[in-house]
């Protein structure tokens, strides 16, 4: 099964479908996610697309953890970075090459996602192509927005 479509904006639809209010639709999408059997090539494509970054915005914490765990269990890299081969997607925020899900969630102040990523082995010392760590993004966001959520993210990343 070629999962190249998972490395495109369709993943946003698939996750949204899995969170749908319509119970039968939600169940079908979650079952589909459960039984997908990615090949080694599929996992390489997903790693190149920094696929964990598409999972962490998931509003359902159980679904988020299940998807990330499944990604890792299938050979996915929790520290996958976006690459020039897969530039920023139209439905995603602009990404600097070398950003991981941890960088993006630190920038967004997504405390629960940062906790989960760290628990699953995300490397908080990784730097983007511009030399920034996830902590650097959280510090700049705190200075700009002065929101309390960044205090916890900064504490977690120090």
TrEMBL record:
ANK repeats lie at residues 97-129. This is Ankyrin repeat domain-containing protein. SUPFAM superfamilies: Ankyrin repeat. Keywords: ANK repeat. It comes from Chitinivorax tropicus. Pfam families: Ank_2. It comes from the Bacteria. PROSITE patterns: ANK_REP_REGION (PS50297), ANK_REPEAT (PS50088).
